[in-house]
Structures are given as C-alpha cells and as structure tokens.
C-alpha cells in the first residue's frame, strides 16, 4: 500500500480522492451492493433511496463534508448518490449485520497508544486506502479506510486519534452517520472537541468510538442517537470489541453481538495484563503481537477464514493499525498482522 496525499479545498480533496481511487471505489460499490442484498434485502437503487434520509442530518451537522463527497463522485465518474450511500453503509446494513474488530487504548511511559484490528468481508481487502488529507481549515490527518469513504480509523497532527467497533442493533435515529462523524472527530483540534461530536452532534446508529489524544487522555464512547455511554480509562487502558457494556448505552439500546465478542474482549484484557510491563518502553512490535493473537481461533482477535460460518457472515482481519498519538505516528499492516511484519508508517508533524 501507499499513502494518497490530498490537499486543497473540500471539493479539490474529494475530486483527487475520486480520481486516484476510481477503480477501487467502483469495486466498493459492487461489494456493498452484494452486502446490502445479503443482509438487508436491498438492491443498490433501493439502498440509494435509503441513504437520502441521512442527507438532512449531514447538512445540519457537517455540511462542508458534502462538498467533498460531491468531489469524490466527480473524480470517480459516479453520481453523488452513490458516494452518499457508500458513506452511509453502516446505517443501511449494520442494523442487520455486525462486523468484528478489536480495539484498545493504552497509556505507558508517557506515550498514548491506540490500536485495532479491522475485521470485515474479504471482498474489501484490496479496497482499503490510506489517505493523508491536508485541508484548508482543518488539522492534517491520516485516515485508513475504504475507498470512496470520507474517513474511518486514524489520527491528526494535534494528536487526536479514533478507532471504531461495529455494533449490531436495530436502533437508527437522528445524528451523523458513523463515518461522517469519524471524519469530524479526525478534524477536531483537541480531545474535548472530538468528544463533543458524539455528545452534541450525536451519531444516528450505534457504534463504539475509541478516542484518545497525545497528552494521555482516552475514553470509549458507545454512541447512538442519545447521550453516549462512556468508558473511562482504567490504569491507562480502554478495551472494546463488538458489544455494548456502558450502562448509559445498554439501558437505551439493545444490541445483538456475535457470540465471540465477549470472549475476545476478555482475551484482550488478559493479554494487556500479562504481556505488557506496567513500566518501561513498549512499541509497535509488542502491540501488533497482541493483535496477532489466535486464542479461540477461528473466532480470535486475529480473525481468519472460517468455513463453518454462513458465507454472508464470514469476516476476516483486513488490516491492523497501531498509533502513537504522542509522536503523531501511525503504522499499518495491510491484511492479517500475523502473516507479515511488513508495514507502512506515516509520521505527521506536530501542529
């Protein structure tokens, strides 16, 4: 993989994104056409109509991002409705389907880390892109995500970073779509502003956002259309998989996690206790080793192909990210972290 550097106005950033990754965006549309049919019984045309109802929410909460979506569509030779639908894919499909994903925040030796495996359908493996975005009125940021989408997992030059865990729930209300909210968080100048995206703008469908900053702050936010459930750091650690467990969220939202979500969380907590020292330097190697764990395989932290699952439910680890927010450094392993130590590292200059 390589990093695609995008600069200029929202429209210019979007158009360059669309031109650079037109083929991958087209493949993403095909992948989600199949996914929407598998999970929601919707063809692409009907999914586009579903996405229309989120347009007023984006117009209210983050109108500038629509210029970028329009630019992506122009650059890729697609309709704006296609890019809107792609960026609302969680709201259209994840009310009926859940992904994997294992994430944690860790503060050690004056360094704030964020790390995660992103588990999803194998069809999206080669549609993953690394975007370095230098906008005109926002922090410089890195987003690792899917071609054609405005953001997913990453960090900015102010030291703010975010990870994502999917939550399966039938809840969907008023607020920003998940991936639009993630981009607004990545444009936040500080931790308080990032958290405000979830607490004031709100997120229209459930997910878990793990937000941290280079000065040592971290919090898990179980978002939904109401006030998010908060998971404060305990001894510098926040962990999450794919079920809700903050009381503020569980009392308002019913989720339907996969049976492996709780065992994965317990395994992650155990690994962080057992493998990492409470003092002394650690680095990317140690954290990628945790993300490579195969206990309880095939439903492990590092997820591999499982032929025993129904075809539409098969998820694999498609990439792993380790971020040092204090040093503004992101390291990516494309594919399963256990299969290679070859990685892509991006270093942002501190603002």
Describe the model.
This protein is α+β, with helices and mostly antiparallel strands and 351 residues long. It has one domain: Penicillin V Acylase, Chain A (4-Layer Sandwich), CATH 3.60.60.10. Helices cover 34% and strands 25% of the residues. Strands 1-4-5-6-7-8-9-10 form an eight-stranded mixed β-sheet. Helix 8 packs antiparallel against helix 9. It starts with a strand and ends with a strand. The mean pLDDT is 94.
> Helix coverage percent of residues?
25-40%
Structural class: alpha+beta
CATH class: Alpha Beta
Distance between the termini: 26 Å
Rounded Rg: 18 Å
Would you identify the CATH architecture?
Answer: 4-Layer Sandwich
What's the pLDDT, averaged over the residues?
94
Q: CATH superfamily name?
A: Penicillin V Acylase, Chain A
By CATH, the topology is Penicillin V Acylase, Chain A
Largest sheet: 8 strands, mixed
Outline the secondary-structure elements:
Layout: E1 3-8, H1 10-20, H2 22-40, H3 44-52, H4 55-61, H5 64-76, H6 80-87, H7 89-93, E2 102-108, E3 111-120, E4 128-135, E5 141-146, E6 153-156, E7 160-166, H8 178-186, H9 191-201, E8 207-213, E9 218-223, E10 229-232, E11 237-240, H10 247-250, H11 261-275, H12 284-291, E12 316-324, E13 329-334, E14 344-347
Parallel strand pairs: 1-4
Antiparallel strand pairs: 2-3, 2-11, 3-12, 4-5, 5-6, 6-7, 7-8, 8-9, 9-10, 12-13, 13-14
